[in-house]
Amino acid sequence: MAVINGNDVGIYVNNQLIGCLTANNIDLNRELIEATCKDNDGARNVLLGGISGSIPFAGNFNAASSYGLSQLLDVILNGTRVGIKQAVEGSGGLYVAAYAYLQNVSWGGDVNSPSTFSGTFEIDGPVTKGTDT
Amino acid sequence: MRVRLLRSWTNEQGTKYPVGQYLDLWPPFAKKLISERYAVADDNRYPEKNKTKTNFFKPK
Predict the structure, then answer these.
(1) How much is the average pLDDT of A83-96?
(2) CB B30 within 8 A of CB B1
(3) Which helix (DSSP H) or strand (DSSP E) does residue A73 occupy?
(4) Are A18 and A57 in contact (CB under 8 A)?
(5) Which has more confidence, A101 or B49?
(6) Are A82 and B12 a contacting pair at CB < 8 A?
(7) pLDDT of A13 higher than 70
(8) Residue ranges per domain, chain A?
(9) Domain-wise residue ranges, chain B
Protein backbone atom coordinates (compact mmCIF):
# COMPACT_ATOMS: atom_id res chain seq x y z
CA MET A 1 0.00 0.00 0.00
CA ALA A 2 1.38 3.34 -0.98
CA VAL A 3 0.19 5.98 1.43
CA ILE A 4 0.30 9.48 -0.02
CA ASN A 5 2.39 11.90 1.97
CA GLY A 6 0.44 15.07 2.77
CA ASN A 7 3.51 17.09 1.79
CA ASP A 8 2.88 16.02 -1.81
CA VAL A 9 -0.70 17.33 -1.90
CA GLY A 10 -0.82 20.95 -2.97
CA ILE A 11 -3.23 23.61 -4.14
CA TYR A 12 -2.77 25.06 -7.60
CA VAL A 13 -4.31 28.41 -8.57
CA ASN A 14 -4.56 28.66 -12.35
CA ASN A 15 -2.01 25.81 -12.49
CA GLN A 16 0.50 27.53 -10.16
CA LEU A 17 1.31 25.93 -6.81
CA ILE A 18 0.73 28.09 -3.73
CA GLY A 19 4.14 28.20 -2.10
CA CYS A 20 5.04 27.34 1.50
CA LEU A 21 1.69 25.88 2.53
CA THR A 22 1.43 24.18 5.90
CA ALA A 23 -2.13 22.86 5.53
CA ASN A 24 -4.78 22.54 2.85
CA ASN A 25 -8.11 20.80 2.38
CA ILE A 26 -10.90 20.46 -0.11
CA ASP A 27 -14.26 20.05 1.58
CA LEU A 28 -17.15 18.96 -0.64
CA ASN A 29 -20.74 18.93 0.50
CA ARG A 30 -23.78 17.45 -1.23
CA GLU A 31 -26.98 19.25 -0.37
CA LEU A 32 -29.76 16.89 0.69
CA ILE A 33 -33.30 18.19 0.37
CA GLU A 34 -35.60 16.87 3.03
CA ALA A 35 -38.57 15.08 1.46
CA THR A 36 -39.80 12.89 4.26
CA CYS A 37 -43.54 12.59 4.65
CA LYS A 38 -45.91 10.46 6.65
CA ASP A 39 -46.09 7.86 3.87
CA ASN A 40 -42.45 6.93 4.59
CA ASP A 41 -43.50 5.19 7.82
CA GLY A 42 -40.84 6.92 9.86
CA ALA A 43 -38.00 6.43 7.37
CA ARG A 44 -36.12 9.46 6.09
CA ASN A 45 -36.48 10.40 2.44
CA VAL A 46 -34.23 12.94 0.72
CA LEU A 47 -33.76 14.41 -2.74
CA LEU A 48 -30.30 15.17 -4.07
CA GLY A 49 -29.35 18.81 -4.31
CA GLY A 50 -26.25 20.55 -5.58
CA ILE A 51 -22.62 20.19 -4.61
CA SER A 52 -20.90 23.00 -2.79
CA GLY A 53 -17.42 23.13 -1.45
CA SER A 54 -14.63 25.14 0.04
CA ILE A 55 -10.86 24.95 -0.03
CA PRO A 56 -9.28 26.27 3.15
CA PHE A 57 -5.52 26.66 3.25
CA ALA A 58 -2.76 28.02 5.48
CA GLY A 59 0.92 28.66 5.02
CA ASN A 60 3.99 30.60 6.00
CA PHE A 61 4.67 33.88 4.23
CA ASN A 62 7.68 33.36 1.99
CA ALA A 63 8.33 36.40 -0.19
CA ALA A 64 10.39 34.21 -2.55
CA SER A 65 7.41 32.05 -3.53
CA SER A 66 6.59 32.44 -7.21
CA TYR A 67 2.91 32.23 -6.19
CA GLY A 68 2.11 33.24 -2.64
CA LEU A 69 0.46 35.81 -0.42
CA SER A 70 0.97 38.73 -2.81
CA GLN A 71 -0.79 36.95 -5.69
CA LEU A 72 -3.58 35.74 -3.37
CA LEU A 73 -4.19 39.33 -2.24
CA ASP A 74 -4.55 40.30 -5.91
CA VAL A 75 -7.14 37.54 -6.35
CA ILE A 76 -9.32 38.70 -3.45
CA LEU A 77 -8.93 42.44 -4.15
CA ASN A 78 -9.82 42.03 -7.83
CA GLY A 79 -12.59 39.48 -7.17
CA THR A 80 -11.07 37.15 -9.74
CA ARG A 81 -12.69 33.79 -10.48
CA VAL A 82 -9.80 31.33 -10.57
CA GLY A 83 -9.29 27.69 -11.48
CA ILE A 84 -8.36 25.67 -8.40
CA LYS A 85 -6.91 22.19 -8.21
CA GLN A 86 -5.94 20.17 -5.20
CA ALA A 87 -3.60 17.55 -6.57
CA VAL A 88 -0.98 14.99 -5.72
CA GLU A 89 2.36 15.98 -7.17
CA GLY A 90 3.68 13.43 -9.62
CA SER A 91 2.63 11.32 -12.56
CA GLY A 92 -0.74 9.63 -12.14
CA GLY A 93 -1.65 11.85 -9.22
CA LEU A 94 -5.29 12.34 -8.28
CA TYR A 95 -6.68 15.84 -8.59
CA VAL A 96 -9.96 17.60 -7.85
CA ALA A 97 -10.63 20.74 -9.86
CA ALA A 98 -13.17 23.55 -9.74
CA TYR A 99 -13.56 27.25 -10.32
CA ALA A 100 -13.70 29.33 -7.17
CA TYR A 101 -13.67 32.76 -5.60
CA LEU A 102 -11.33 33.62 -2.78
CA GLN A 103 -13.68 34.48 0.07
CA ASN A 104 -11.22 35.44 2.79
CA VAL A 105 -7.51 35.88 3.40
CA SER A 106 -5.74 36.45 6.69
CA TRP A 107 -2.16 37.58 7.10
CA GLY A 108 -0.64 37.27 10.55
CA GLY A 109 2.52 38.47 12.18
CA ASP A 110 2.85 37.02 15.68
CA VAL A 111 5.91 37.59 17.84
CA ASN A 112 8.68 34.98 17.60
CA SER A 113 6.98 32.96 14.88
CA PRO A 114 6.85 32.95 11.12
CA SER A 115 4.48 35.37 9.47
CA THR A 116 1.55 33.27 8.31
CA PHE A 117 -1.33 33.52 5.89
CA SER A 118 -4.55 31.59 5.48
CA GLY A 119 -7.71 31.77 3.45
CA THR A 120 -10.65 29.95 1.93
CA PHE A 121 -11.73 29.49 -1.65
CA GLU A 122 -15.46 28.96 -2.23
CA ILE A 123 -16.29 26.79 -5.22
CA ASP A 124 -18.42 28.30 -7.99
CA GLY A 125 -19.65 25.82 -10.59
CA PRO A 126 -19.11 22.11 -11.16
CA VAL A 127 -16.43 20.00 -9.49
CA THR A 128 -14.40 17.48 -11.49
CA LYS A 129 -11.80 14.89 -10.62
CA GLY A 130 -9.19 13.05 -12.58
CA THR A 131 -5.63 11.85 -12.65
CA ASP A 132 -2.58 13.62 -13.97
CA THR A 133 -1.54 12.02 -17.26
CA MET B 1 6.57 20.17 -10.90
CA ARG B 2 9.32 22.77 -10.87
CA VAL B 3 10.39 24.41 -14.12
CA ARG B 4 12.80 27.16 -15.11
CA LEU B 5 11.58 29.71 -17.64
CA LEU B 6 13.43 30.04 -20.95
CA ARG B 7 11.24 32.96 -22.01
CA SER B 8 9.36 35.52 -19.98
CA TRP B 9 5.85 34.32 -19.19
CA THR B 10 2.72 36.09 -17.97
CA ASN B 11 0.17 34.16 -15.94
CA GLU B 12 -3.62 34.53 -16.14
CA GLN B 13 -3.57 37.17 -13.40
CA GLY B 14 -1.20 39.32 -15.41
CA THR B 15 1.89 38.67 -13.27
CA LYS B 16 4.95 38.64 -15.52
CA TYR B 17 7.80 36.27 -14.67
CA PRO B 18 11.28 36.87 -16.12
CA VAL B 19 13.60 34.46 -17.92
CA GLY B 20 15.29 32.15 -15.43
CA GLN B 21 12.43 32.30 -12.92
CA TYR B 22 11.63 29.01 -11.20
CA LEU B 23 7.93 28.15 -11.08
CA ASP B 24 6.06 25.32 -9.37
CA LEU B 25 3.30 24.26 -11.72
CA TRP B 26 0.62 21.58 -12.01
CA PRO B 27 2.54 18.82 -13.86
CA PRO B 28 0.38 18.63 -17.05
CA PHE B 29 0.55 22.41 -17.37
CA ALA B 30 4.30 22.35 -16.78
CA LYS B 31 4.68 19.76 -19.56
CA LYS B 32 2.66 22.04 -21.86
CA LEU B 33 5.01 24.97 -21.17
CA ILE B 34 8.01 22.67 -21.71
CA SER B 35 6.60 21.40 -25.02
CA GLU B 36 6.08 25.00 -26.15
CA ARG B 37 9.72 25.71 -25.21
CA TYR B 38 8.72 28.25 -22.60
CA ALA B 39 10.49 26.32 -19.85
CA VAL B 40 12.67 23.38 -18.99
CA ALA B 41 12.14 20.90 -16.20
CA ASP B 42 14.24 21.54 -13.14
CA ASP B 43 15.48 18.34 -11.54
CA ASN B 44 17.21 20.07 -8.67
CA ARG B 45 14.19 20.77 -6.53
CA TYR B 46 15.79 18.85 -3.71
CA PRO B 47 19.49 19.14 -4.60
CA GLU B 48 20.62 17.65 -1.30
CA LYS B 49 19.05 14.34 -2.35
CA ASN B 50 21.09 14.25 -5.53
CA LYS B 51 24.45 14.53 -3.83
CA THR B 52 26.61 11.46 -4.15
CA LYS B 53 27.45 9.99 -0.79
CA THR B 54 31.12 9.93 0.01
CA ASN B 55 32.27 6.41 0.64
CA PHE B 56 35.04 6.76 3.22
CA PHE B 57 35.83 3.05 3.06
CA LYS B 58 36.39 2.95 -0.67
CA PRO B 59 40.00 1.86 -1.32
CA LYS B 60 42.05 4.33 -3.35
Answers:
(1) 89
(2) yes
(3) helix A69-78
(4) yes
(5) A101
(6) yes
(7) yes
(8) 6-131
(9) 2-44
Taking the Cβ of residue B25 and every Cβ of chain A, the question of whether any pair is shorter than 8 Å is answered with yes
> Which positions in chain A have a beta carbon within 8 angstroms of at least one beta carbon in chain B?
10, 12, 14-17, 19, 66-67, 71, 74-75, 78, 80, 82, 85, 87, 89-91, 93, 95, 132-133
Side-chain-side CA neighbours of residue A89 (13 Å): 16
Report the C-alpha dihedral over residues B41, B46, B52, B57, rounded to 10 degrees: -170
Q: Can you tell me the mean pLDDT for A20-34?
A: 96
Residue type at A77 in one-letter notation = L
Q: Give the ipTM of the model, two decimals please.
A: 0.84
pLDDT band for position A92 (50/70/90)? confident
pLDDT tens digits for B5-56?
A: 999 999 998 889 999 999 999 999 999 999 999 999 986 655 555 455 555 5
* Phi, psi (degrees; rounded to nearest 5) at A111: -65, 140
Beta strands in chain A (DSSP E): 9-13, 16-17, 21-24, 27-34, 46-60, 81-88, 94-108, 116-131
Fold observed for domain A6-131: Pnp Oxidase; Chain A (2.30.110)
- Mean of the per-residue pLDDT values of chain A: 94
Q: Residue A110's Cα: distance from chain center in Å? A: 25
Give the DSSP H/E element, type plus range, for residue B48: helix B47-50
- Are A8 and A24 a contacting pair, CB within 8 Å? no
Looking at the whole model, is its pTM more than 0.90? no
